[in-house]
Every structure is written in C-alpha cells, then in structure tokens.
Design goal:
Layout (H helix, E strand, L loop, with lengths): L2 E10 L17 H7 L4 H9 L7 E2 L12 E2 L6 H17 L3 H22 L7 E3 L1 H13 L6 H9 L6 H15 L8 E9 L1 H4 L4 H11 L1 E5 L5 H12 L17 E11 L6 E2 L3 E4 L5 E4 L1 E6 L3 E7 L2 E12 L2 H4 L1 E8 L4 H11 L9 H9 L9 E6 L1 E8 L1 H6 L4 H4 L13 E13 L4 E12 L10 E3 L4 E7 L5 E7 L5
Helix pairs in contact: 2-3, 4-12, 5-6, 5-7
C-alpha cells in the first residue's frame, strides 16, 4: 500500500458582534515621505528585514499591484514613492528564496510545533497528532487580515513562531504555492486554499485582502450557497483530499460571514519498504511493557544520531530520519526518542516552563542539528519500530490562548478584512489522523476556526529499536515544512 497523508484546515465564520469599533488610521508626515524617496537599496533592505517596523502603504484600488503591507496610503499618494515600495517588494521576494529566509521560516514553524505540542501534551491523550503546516497556513491567512499593529496581530505573529512581520511569512507561502503547485511535487502533495463569503458580506470585504489571499495564498473565491452550503464546501474538501475526508462541517450557521478553508493531501512510499519484524516489548510512558508487532528495515538510506538537550539535562535522545522515495528522498519522517521511558514527560514539563523564553532550545531543532552531519556519512542501520495509528480531535482555543493568543478571541481586530465591523475568533478546532505502516504513511487532518462579528555516550548502535515513547514529525527537507507532528507513548491507547 502506498502511504497517504491528508490535512484540512478550515476557518469558519466571520460574523458581526455589537461592539463599536475604534478604527486607527496611520499617518505619514510629508518629511518622511520625502526622505523615503531617497532610500538606497541597502536602506530598503534594512527597513524590510531589520528590527524597525515597516510602514509600507498602498491604495485599496483593486487593480493596483499587491505590495506586502496591510496599511493603506492616502489617496494623494506620491507615485515616485510607490515605485520605491514596488522595488522594496521585489527585494523582499528575492530575499524570501534565500537560505536565511527559509531558515527563518523553518525555525518559526518548529517553534510553533513545539509550543502547540507542549500545551496539548497533558490534555489530548497518550498519543496525538496535528498538522503544523496546515494550521500555520490558515493562521497566517488570518493574520494577513489582522489590524496593523494591533494586539491581535502581534499575538498571532508571536504564536506563529515569533515571526517578525507578516510580509515575510506571506512571501514564504507565496513560494510554497509556486513550488508545490503545477510541479512534480503534485505527484505526492496537493494543497489548496478557498475563501467563501455571503452575498451580504461580499460588498464589505476589502479588495486588498481578496487580492492578497489570491496572489499570495492562491485562494479561490466563492459565494456561500443560500441553501445547504455545507454540501458545496464538503464536496470541495472531498475533492482536494481524494475522498479521504468527505465531511468537514455538519452545518453552517447563518451568522457565518466568511469561510477560509485549507486542504492538504500527501501520498508517498518509503524509499526502502519495511519488512515484517519480530514482536518485542514497548515500554509505555507509565513504565508498563507491552508486546507489540514491529516492522524492520535495514538500509544505508536511514540517518541516525544521538544528542543531549538542556530541556532534559539527564537524558540522551535517539533521532532517526526515515526518507520517502520521492525526488531523491526529499520528504522524511523523523523520530525523536529518549533513552529513558519517562524522558518525554520530563521534556513536556521542562519545555512548557521555558515556552516564553526565546533562547530556550527546541527539541525538533536539536534533532535536526544532530542528524545534519550524519546525512553525508553512509552508514547502514536496522530500524525496528511499531506500526501505529494516531487519531486526534482537538479543541484548539485553549492551546492558542496558552500560547499567548487572546486578542483574537476577546478584542477582535481584523480591519484588513472588513472595516467598521469588528470581527473576533469564536472557536478553533483541529482533527488529524496518521497511520504508519510497512509501506508508508496514511493520514488526514481537519481544522476549523470560527470568527464572529465580534555526559554521555552519543555513539549510535547499528540496530535501533524504537521501543519507548517517541515524538515524530514528517517534513519537507528542502522547503522545511512540517506536515505532521505528534507523540506516541502507548500502543494500546
């Protein structure tokens, strides 16, 4: 059987709530405008990627080129300055393909993944799984509509992995669209974004937001059907996921003003298929031992390493990268397993205490750094690991709040989608499943966001037994997207 992974992310409803909006209009002095027209390319780069906030502005005219800003410019905009903004946009786009930009995105996604996993650790059972890439994508689309410099925008950017500004993130997702669509990647990976609204709210949507989500996120646009709108939405989801998920919403509330949907589908086989292995003990996170079926694979294409981390000072971690066959093993699953069975419990407790520390270590980053030098060395490893299936149905609200996102729920602040009618997030849900077999991986995920109008021996043995609780994540080694991530601590859970 060929492995499959499907992920769906859904933003449901932007409807009104009766609180007067306080609308903030940024101003620009004529002196600053004059000074900006004399910016050198180096000055532009500093303004784009330095620590100072950017104040790029452009008209609401639907025909104007998209520029990476969420701040509007007065109607008497100086055309020479607009040229500089377009030039700055070109520089930003060039930067977005650089190694440093990809690394910045990778670190932000790894930070988002660790923060979310740690917050959900004690609440979602002994095994669970999420789709970081899918959830991150839709939250980025939401952030693109957040009011500039608002509490909501700042908190969302921080939760997305301490992203410095939404413009850089938008360019990264624009590049994902370019590289993941209409290329060979579609043989194993497909994703799409869609935006729905009602006839009533269609007239209220800001043109620049529609243009932005189309140009940067490749989102299609449709009106919500007056009767049985769920049917059209679920049919789109079913098509995007090749029938793996045929229903994402049961019913659509009349209060729904907007609907943003993301669907992700992944299908790949291991570069070397596993054979049936010998059943052996698996030590659960509680210390119980259970005999479980194992699959085994001996190959030079496995990479492995051991590492230590400040997160769990007294533990040694084993990490293994198991590649899929496509495009010279571009995609891979990475296993992270502590040598002591309680290691993941210690990890979760320690990582949570340091979640607000920007200098705290990231266990996914540590694993990848440990693997990096091993990728150039040809070593044969035998990997014995269980086949496993993990299913999760997660209420995301409380975890986003724990990650510092409160303004989106309590204050709203999405004036870059609709002005003069405040919007707020009311509910965020996420469903995911992953099945790992001898042939590959099968998985699915669905999420919904409702918005309403308001010292140690580090030598790795030749044979690696994945027989204790472990973390796992599936990633694109080139563009650094983390498609799925989860924990596995009990075979009987």
């Amino acid at each position: 059987m060929v492995g499959k992974i499907i992920a769906i992310l859904l933003i449901l409803t932007f409807a009104s709530y009766s609180i007067d909006a306080q609308i903030l209009f940024p101003t620009n002095s004529d002196e600053n405008e004059t000074e900006n027209t004399n910016l050198s390319p180096e000055d532009i780069i500093d303004s784009l990627f330095g620590d100072s906030e950017t104040n790029e502005i452009f008209t609401e005219d639907f025909g104007q080129p998209v520029v990476s800003s969420t701040t509007e410019r007065p109607e008497n905009e100086d055309l020479a300055d607009l040229w500089h903004l377009n030039d700055a946009e070109a520089l930003r786009e060039r930067f977005s393909d650089s190694k440093s930009a990809i690394l910045e995105y990778e670190n932000s996604l790894l930070d988002f993944t660790q923060a979310f996993v740690v917050e959900a650790w004690n609440h979602e059972g002994q095994n669970f799984v999420i789709s970081p890439f899918s959830l991150h994508t839709v939250l980025a689309m939401l952030t693109s509509g957040a009011t500039d410099n608002s509490t909501t925008q700042i908190e969302l950017l921080d939760a997305l992995g301490s992203v410095r500004n939404i413009q850089n993130l938008e360019q990264r997702y624009k590049n994902f669209v370019r590289d993941y669509k209409n290329t060979d990647i579609t043989e194993i990976l497909n994703f799409g974004n869609k935006f729905w609204t009602t006839q009533k709210y269609f007239k209220k949507i800001r043109g620049q937001y529609l243009e932005k989500i189309s140009a940067l996120y490749d989102a299609d646009f449709s009106l919500i059907a007056a009767k049985s709108p769920e049917k059209e939405i679920n049919e789109w989801v079913k098509k995007q996921t090749n029938g793996k998920i045929d229903k994402i919403i049961d019913s659509l509330s009349p209060e729904v003003a907007f609907l943003i949907v993301n669907a992700l589908y992944f299908k790949a086989s291991w570069s070397v298929l596993f054979d049936e292995g010998t059943p052996q003990n698996f030590t659960t996170i509680d210390g119980d031992k259970k005999i479980v079926p194992m699959m085994t694979r001996t190959s030079l294409q496995n990479s492995g390493a051991r590492f230590e981390t400040e997160i769990v000072p007294d533990a040694i971690f084993t990490t293994v990268a198991i590649p899929y066959a496509f495009q010279d093993r571009r995609f891979e699953m990475v296993i992270v397993m502590p040598e002591i069975y309680k290691g993941l419990t210690f990890f979760a407790d320690s990582a949570k205490t340091g979640i607000d520390n920007p200098l705290a270590e990231n266990i996914f980053r540590k694993a990848l750094d440990a693997l990096e030098p091993e990728r150039t060395v040809s070593k044969e490893y035998t990997i014995n690991m269980p086949t496993f299936t993990v299913d999760s149905n997660i209420d995301v609200n409380k975890y986003l709040r724990a990650m510092g996102v409160n303004g989106a729920f309590d204050e709203g602040g999405f004036e870059n989608i609709v002005q003069n009618e405040p919007l707020r997030v009311s509910a965020v849900k996420h469903r995911a499943t992953v099945e790992v077999t001898r042939d590959g991986t099968v998985g699915a995920a669905a999420s919904a966001i409702e918005i309403v109008s308001f010292q140690a021996n580090l030598n790795l043995p030749k044979e690696i037994n994945i027989d204790k609780p472990f973390l796992f994540f599936i990633r694109d080694t080139e563009l650094k997207a983390v498609l799925f991530a989860g924990k596995y601590t009990n075979p009987d859970a």
